[in-house]
TrEMBL record:
Involved in chemotaxis. Part of a chemotaxis signal transduction system that modulates chemotaxis in response to various stimuli. Catalyzes the demethylation of specific methylglutamate residues introduced into the chemoreceptors (methyl-accepting chemotaxis proteins or MCP) by CheR. Also mediates the irreversible deamidation of specific glutamine residues to glutamic acid. Contains a C-terminal catalytic domain, and an N-terminal region which modulates catalytic activity. GO terms for molecular function: phosphorelay response regulator activity; protein-glutamate methylesterase activity; protein-glutamine glutaminase activity. The gene is cheB. Phosphorylated by CheA. Phosphorylation of the N-terminal regulatory domain activates the methylesterase activity. Residues 153-344 form the CheB-type methylesterase domain. This is Protein-glutamate methylesterase/protein-glutamine glutaminase. It is found in: Cytoplasm. The lineage of its organism: Bacteria, Pseudomonadati, Pseudomonadota, Alphaproteobacteria, Acetobacterales. Its main location: cytoplasm.
Amino acid sequence: MNNKIRVIIVDDSKTGRAFIAAALRRDSDIEIIGMAADPLEARDLIIKDQPDVITLDIEMPNMNGLQFLEKIMRMRPIPVVMVSSLTVRGAETSVEALQLGAFDCFPKPEAGSGIDSYMGLIPLVKAAACSTSRRSSAHNITSIKKSSRRQVILPEVIAIGASTGGVEALGAILPRLPHTLPPILVTQHMPPLFTASLANRLNQMCDIRVQEAEDGILLEHGNAYIAPGGRRHLHLRKLGGRLFAGLDEDEPVSGHRPSVDELFRSVAYYSGAHSVGIILTGMGRDGAEGLLKMRDAGAYTLGQSAASCVVYGMPKAAMEVGAVERMVPLGSMADTLISYCMSENGDFV
């Protein structure tokens, strides 16, 4: 019985298709069942061969990758890994693709790069094959109780961590938040350039102001600050009772820079019980230990429910170490956060 991950590669470049195929074939769990130079050719292959995962270029003739992705998500959701050039335009279209439902984006290596530069596609394709293509809209909220009742303290800052699927999750949460909420710090695993495009797109959708974080910037209510991708960790800092963002070029933590663990640890240190920590969909366990420090310091901690995650990795790891106080479906996350932040007595609406 063939249990391999069946992949179709869609790229208008013959060289690009060859490199992607050669890299993926190095993993014995992956089988290339077809390659297409444009979406029209790919459509016929998808209907005929029913792949588990599609890798999809963005800039192509006849129909661009975003238009094709939208059709795939509407007609028959299949995990799609976008392959995009690491440029400002490429970043903008990649963020749009993630909001449309793409599993993740892989930055296309520069011309002249060898097969090794495409090896990062392997874990993305394998994770995509295991992802949830249709997320549950259930609204059940699960409380993970400790031995004693927690004291409710209204927060001064909210910290959010996410990875794979996080762009779509942030797009479901931030536009529903009022400008009266405390400042929000966000670490989303993304390459350089991508986070600036993400902040700009979210800012157009939201009542709150969304921007890429800057070192030393004063944090204000009704604002969300996203860690710049790929280069520096985002930290909370406190001086004279006021909160600031800090960006540090330290070594990667939990395999990531920026790291969710680094953000959560700084929030636990400076704000403790006066904070909320939220861990969203993503691969791996980045954020689990940091969120535990927040909960131990008295913070209110939320994790995205398994059924509503694209990848139930980071929230699961956080739950397993006891870092999560409540597991919340994505569709209920904004309302749960608003209820807690606006409450005078800790009751939930």
